[in-house]
Records
---
Amino acid sequence: MKTIGYAAQSTTTPLAPWAFDRRELRGNDVQMQIQYCGVCHSDLHQARNDWGWSSYPVVPGHEIVGVVTAVGPDVKKFKEGDRVAVGCMVDSCQHCDQCDKGEEQLCRHGNTQTYNGKDRITGEPTYGGYSRDLVVREEFVLRMPDGLDMAKAAPLLCAGITTWSPLKTWGVKEGSRVGVIGLGGLGHMAVKLAVGLGAHVVVLSRTADKEADAKELGAHELLVSSDKAAMKAAANSLDLIIDTVPVKHDLNPYMTLLDIDGTLVIVGQLGPMEEMSTLPLLMARRRVSGSPIGGIRETQEMLDFCAEKNILPDVEMIRMDEINHAFDRMEKSDVRYRFVIDMATLEAPAA
Ligand SMILES: [Zn+2]
Ligand SMILES: [Zn+2]
């Protein structure tokens, strides 16, 4: 089927309108019309090939919400008109131990990325949510709960699940003590979700100027990481730290904030890290870990939780043709806290 979207045709060209084909429906496929798509940092990085694995054209977008427009004959869970969502992956092997556990993001054979990936059957490139229509096998389609605002919910599909998964993996609950480093797209969701789970939430920031923002998001405290006395006083005060800062930085100052058996989880792709001292790890059995998105079951659980608790990202709505400007602003962290594209503004390329 013919569709339209926005694509980067090379590392140096800005995103521009592009007409392309989606596959015809397979038996277990769901076809949706996209209403909104969130703008993630990885969209920018892959459009510009910052990670070295982009294959062009790249149609970014993996925070996708919309409405079902058609289903294949074997689809059981969805019908035309259903409100649905798709996140960072659209397929996996479906039979390894990780897929069996519902951790498709850790599939032994690799999951299929929503864009800049390869279809498992035909090997064709996958194209993401900066487009009008999407075709995805039903196992990777999420149900949008009633009452969840479609216009604001899109960033839950990457920023939301990426911070929800470590909160659940490390058992955050009422009374847990959670630190969040960085107040961007991911960080602001980490705060809202941890608060929703009943945790005491501390935002860690180099300066005090984000205190009002942190509190507005529901955080209980802001700890200034450049304030040595305050950092010392906060030693052993956290069970989990979620580190969302997407550039190389020194983890050492944060480690002693963790209590015994506490964990610092990195959710951004930083590349090589600064040297780390083993002493804080040894002295209190502290850990450093990483965490990618989350599984499909976990993503549905997160969407249902957000509907129940009325948790939504703070978004700035843009038109499709504002995307290149939005990328520039995102690079300067000039967004509160996530851009979302209104896909009704997508126009076909000039003939
Ligand atoms: Zn993302
Ligand atoms: Zn698998």
---
Amino acid sequence: MPVPISQMWTVSKYVLTQRWRGRKRYPLVLMLEPLFRCNLACAGCGKIQYPAHILKKQLTPEECFAAVEECGAPMVSIPGGEPLLHPQIKEIVEGLVARRKYIYLCTNALLLKEKIDLFTPSKYLTFSVHMDGQREHHDFAVCREGTYDRAIEGMREALSRGFRVTTNTTLFDGADPASVREFFDEMMKLGVEGMMLSPGYSYEKAPDQSHFLARDSTRSLFRRILSNRDRSWKFNQSPLFLEFLMGRQEYACTPWGMPTYNIFGWQKPCYLLQDGYADSFEGLMRETAWEKYGTESGNPKCANCMVHSGYEASAVNDTFGSLGGFLRTVRATLLGGTYRDDGARRELETTARSRPGGGQAVVPLTVTAAARQETERVA
Ligand code: SF4
């Protein structure tokens, strides 16, 4: 079971209560960005290109707690930037645990071993480690050698101390599905609780614009990766969202399911786009023209998007909104479906044969120097 029963129970009870109250739009996970500063400069990231004076800013613990209480979501994801660079991350985490929020602290784990003493193991706290594949692929994607090994070291330390540890993986065009499957085996062997996946979103500000996935490519890639899967693989996310990535489900975007709060306020409409900010969560829900977003809206910014922050809450809504969705979720969760697909197996073998030596790197190296210079400038 990739997620503790208590967390499943809390989330199920919360969603059913929202539906029972007839609430059409409700938050499931608060994306709390306490800072944008980072110790990496990944080519596919849209968060670290802010000017230095913005990168130096951060939310106070009190601002974080106020946002969490205002929003009311049972889960809080803390991305960034790199949250372990926040000087008060200990206070922020302790305050959220005291409020019984299930926290996913998203980190590249470069500082995890060094900072682990700040934290106490809890069912409410999970380190969600950014890992973009096997060593060669991960180091290339984050534009720095040695990051895979340091992250593994940090994860081992956290696991040995009894912390919950998961991985989060963003995949871009050119990802080698065979290598990704081997990466899953490696993570399961390491002992992580579960893995999370998402296709990369085409951030306008990202230095590398040439490797973002279109929707058809996303479905094809995830079908090859997730079909005929090993029963030992555990995913720490909705099984119906994974089916959506494989092209087995169709969902409309529900960006309010994972609202974003950061140093600018409540971001409209989602974690990825910045079409203005609201002063309060209530203002975000009231003022945002939600009908202008989602792939089905025709908004070109949303055309190729299939990311978890827009569609995972849709999948969870499906689980609790229809008997069919509920039964499919139960079957996938309890029986651990392998999604047998002979066509996908053949395509996987063909891909593997055409990529001797483990596949192509997914980000051009020319981006690395510029991106790294920017990080060093603001660090
Ligand atoms: S489809 Fe949804 S999550 Fe994706 S960019 Fe548009 S509003 Fe945001």
---
Amino acid sequence: MLTASQLFALANGIAAASGPFRCWFCGGAAAQKCADAATVVKDSFTARDIASRGSKVCDGCMAAMQEKATVVLFNGEKRENQKIRSYSWVITRHKAEAYPKSYLPALADRLLNPPEPPFAIVISKSGQKHLIYLAPVNLDKTNPGVVLETNIVYYKPEELRKRLALCVLITAALGKKALDGPLTISQAIKMKNMHIKQVEEIVQEWNQVWDEPLSWLAAAVCPKKGDMS
Ligand SMILES: [Zn+2]
């Protein structure tokens, strides 16, 4: 069973060496010849509590943590000298698609139409953390799990479609920042003044669900007001 990092390596033409050892990051199988965790893992690494902490670092994690990699965007554009962690990723054994922050509509569309399994999805908000090793490898696309920064969120594409539509409605009226919490009375008044229909229903619906993981996911991929067509 390949981990998300090992799937990422495979998409880049590297078959991670397998053996009786365990990877410090992803917990996947690693070989004697793989890098030693003691030499690779920096003392400054902050996510020790969520790492698997084996004795090796597998070839997959070495590939998934590169700071000067050639990445290929979902639209085929190639970029040199890139940090893997700066991008969101949709990974299958054949392809690792990178999504820059400026292409949220494409990423949202991909979440609604996941690839054929096995696949892994990683959504980076900060661009600062290595996240691929945390991603579950999905074997079906009806209820996939994605890494959203350091949370794992499971979703059903049809439910995400509805939640995203709600986020788009609110963002178009109030800006994306409004998705960070429940809607206030003054925001409701503002929406009414914009002649938006069914404001009460929108406010009630959002205020019931804004802190659900599905809403975090929808908000993360919802385009900014300025990027809406
Ligand atoms: Zn690994």
---
Amino acid sequence: MINRWSHSRLSTYESCPKKAFYRYVKKHPEESHPAAERGLKIHKLAEQYIKNELEEMPKQLYLFYEGFEQLREDYKKGDVCVEEKWAFNLSWEKSDWDGEDTWGRYVVDAFVQDGPHAKVIDFKTGRYKEYNEGYKNQCALYACCVFKRFPELKTIQTELWYLDHHKITKYSFTREEAAEKQKDFHARGLALTTDEVFDTTPSEFSCRFCAFTKICKDNFYERKT
Ligand code: SF4
């Protein structure tokens, strides 16, 4: 069973339950991707810069020079949370990352609160797509979680900062909109965390990016040959 979920676990599970089983239950080793490693490195640099742990802004952040300067200033004033690991229980109430009742987890790259309004910023590296359904879904989940964590908030703006492209995609949510979406996420999170079968759902798309094609006999390409 997979007892805890996150946006990335949900994406994996909905792409193919068996893929989630291999990754999160069996923990089969996977090759690391250079692009993923680069992303982690840049996230770390961004965190260090905002927290004033680096004197010079790393060149990887230059396209958002003003944005990172502002975050650094606001962090000094105590108005910004960076790389926070937040979690919630089955009632979507705040819990500890490793709490016994923890059901869902999410990491916020940057969170800025201004009275009843808040901004959640997610740093993206790599390709830019004007519209990305998965990222929009991720933003909606942020809104659901953050509204529950901060009952005083009235609006949340989520921003995807494409650090390699100087592009920002924004989605705004009211508390009422997020409450509607939360019902959907709740059902999807339950499907993931109660599954004991983990069926395969082979397809050209999900199998093309699967690290387990060699051990999965249902993989789309195996079936075609
Ligand atoms: S190879 Fe395809 S069917 Fe098998 S686990 Fe991966 S995504 Fe699922």
